[in-house]
Amino acid sequence: MDKNILLQQRISRMYLRFLIPTVIGMVTQSVYCLADVYFISAGTGANGLAALNIAMPIFTIMSAIGLWVGVGCATTMSVSEGAGCIEDKHKVFTMAMILAAGAGIVLTLGECLFLEPFSRMLGATDALLPDVLTYLRPIILLSTFNIIGWVLQIVIRADNAPGLVMGATVVSSLLNIVLDYLFVIVWRWGLFGASFATALSSCVSCAWLCSYYFHRERNIRFVKNCWNGKLFRRMIGNGAASAMLETSAGIVIILFNYAILNIAAPIYLAAYSVITNIAYVGKGILNGFAQAVQPIISTNHGAKLFHRVHHSLGIACLYTVSVALIGYGIILLFPGQIAGIFAKGDQTLLKLAEHGILLYFSSFVLTATNTIFMYYLQSIEKGRLSTLFTIIRGFLLILVGLMILPSWLGIDGVWLCVTFAEGITLLISLPFIYKQIRQDKKRLLEEEDHEKSICVPDLGIE
């Protein structure tokens, strides 16, 4: 991609160019996740949903690795391109792909050796353990392709090919839905069928994305002498917050599982499974809005065009918060209908999920704002600050909320923990965001003054 497009074209137009295919891909991927829950609910009932919820952190682990490497690579590539360091861009890409493949292989071997202890650590009881193991095996065996696919999605999108990423996501998601129907409903393979469908679809998506390397318009390539310690540390630092957010999401699911089973009946765990899968859809869409602005912010930051960086941040916030408001409005109007998609035929589960959805998603606008701020800090290579806020937001405040709120509000306190954490995080992060913008403006004024001082015209005075 010609970097001048990112440095000169109107921000709103560029953002939409990245946003539309990104969100279409995210929505399609989210639909397949909902379909997965629907088919598991229809084919295996509440026990299947409970087992799925316990197994969910494995997806968190894979996506955390993929986001760590992918976002770190894409951010470092974009900043390097903005600064005119094209060779560094290729080195970062090569290191990222080697790291992703290696991490996937290590994860597969580790999980295969310790699958049962891992499942029990996630919260699997003796009654649910067989179902959890059945679901996890196909996912783990093909996890390397899932991780590489995550990395390629982010990197290829940043390399100005969001349409290809959208195509891979749409095709794999539709394939997953078709295979879910065949394996779970028609052939009655149960949880194994749902898991196998997901694993196969990930392989198809990975293969589709790998084809980008043979496109003439690609602007990334492998290089032999790729190792550069400084670039590697930048890549790891730039992606750490995304990985931490995903990891904390998995930890939160485990903590919620324990908290719910400690104060309520197992059916509340099935209700939480419905809520988490709807939340996965919502957060996926919000991440799509945030990821779409990353290459724009990073490239302009590398070129020190801070006014364009701030304009990009403002547009991303406007779009994302607006969508979050609309989304929560839909939830307020139709909570029963949304919960009923996954709790069909079970009135008790339906009522519990409907009530939980209303409370849980009161955090949606706060989550949207915090997500944009986190990606903004990553995009300008403020990885440590972004990681700090992510730990506070995604783990520490959730833990504090689970320790305090349920003792006051019972199960409602569990549903409100995310709102509690997101609200406090926003209050903490706003002064830092404001300070960063002021520093950028000060640097811009200093550079303008410097340019004026060295461009004084010759007046012919001896």
Offer a concise description of the structure.
This is Multidrug export protein MepA. The protein is an all-alpha fold and 462 residues long.
Number of helical regions: 18
Average predicted confidence as pLDDT: 87
Total domain units: 1
Kindly estimate the percentage of residues that lie in beta strands according to DSSP.
under 5%
Instruction: Pick out the low-confidence regions.
Output: 458-462
The radius of gyration computed from the alpha-carbon positions, rounded to a whole number of angstroms, is: 23 Å
Q: State the total count of DSSP E strands.
A: 0
- First and last CA, distance: 50 Å
Helix content: over 70%
The succession of helices and strands, N to C, reads HHHHHHHHHHHHHHHHHH
The description of the largest β-sheet is:
none
Could you name the key traits of this structure?
transmembrane helix, 85% helix, 18 helices, 462 residues, mainly alpha
Structure description:
This protein is mainly α and 462 residues long. The chain has one domain. The chain is built from 18 helices and no strands. The chain has helices spanning 3-8, 11-55, 57-82, 86-113, 115-122, 129-141, 143-158, 162-186, 190-210, 229-263, 267-302, 306-333, 335-340, 347-360, 364-379, 383-409, 411-415, 417-453. Helix 6 runs parallel beside helix 9 (190-210), helix 10 runs parallel beside helix 16 (383-409) and helix 12 runs antiparallel to helix 15. It is found in: Cell membrane. InterPro entries: MATE_fam, MATE_MepA-like, MATE_MepA_subfamily, MdtK-like. Belongs to the multi antimicrobial extrusion (MATE) (TC 2.A.66.1) family. MepA subfamily.
